[in-house]
Amino acid sequence: MRDALVIARQALATGDVPVGAIIVNADGVVVGTGSNERKANNDPTAHAEIVAIRNASTRLQKSRLDGCTLIVTLEPCAMCAGAIAQSRISHLVYGAWDEKAGAVGSVWDVLRDPRSIFKVEVTSGLLETECVGLLKEFFSDK
What is the DSSP letter of 64? Predict the structure, then answer.
């Protein structure tokens, strides 16, 4: 999560919300990274999770990321939760809850819905204070 926080800070340079994500394989090797790039690329789908999934899929030359863990500083939204499921990521770890748009426990729980086809192990609240602090710092200037 500390690596994801470093990546999240990269988004500050473009004015994007500071969210960072890393994907590690079963051996703990980083295979993908991403920060929010919505403003930088004028792309509403360029959330940190999506960028990291694209990066890992390109690097590994496959669309299924079975056995991988996604670590992200903010609870994924519905779009990102869907992408996590579709990419077959095995484990999600996130720091801060998103009580406005979170889709992995706060507002919705897309990944653990009993009707969901894909099962993803979820761990929440890792370094939550640090993740929340970065977001609060960003939004205090807005």
Answer: -
Separation between Cα atoms, residue 60 and residue 16, nearest integer Å: 27
**Is 121 known to be catalytic?**
no
The answer to whether the beta carbons of residues 72 and 19 sit under 8 Å apart is yes
Beta carbons within 8 Å of 131's beta carbon, 6+ residues apart: 1, 5, 8, 73, 74, 95, 96
63, 74, 78, 76: which is closest to 32 by C-alpha?
63
pLDDT, one tens digit per residue, over 13-49 is: 999 999 999 999 999 999 999 999 999 999 999 999 9
- In a 3-state reduction of DSSP, which class is residue 41? helix
Query: Which residues lie closer than 8 Å to 8 by C-beta, 6 or more apart?
Result: 18, 19, 20, 35, 36, 48, 73, 131, 134
Q: What are the tens digits of pLDDT across the range 105-136?
A: 999 999 999 998 888 999 999 999 999 999 99
Which of 37, 49, 99, 137 is catalytic? The answer is: 49
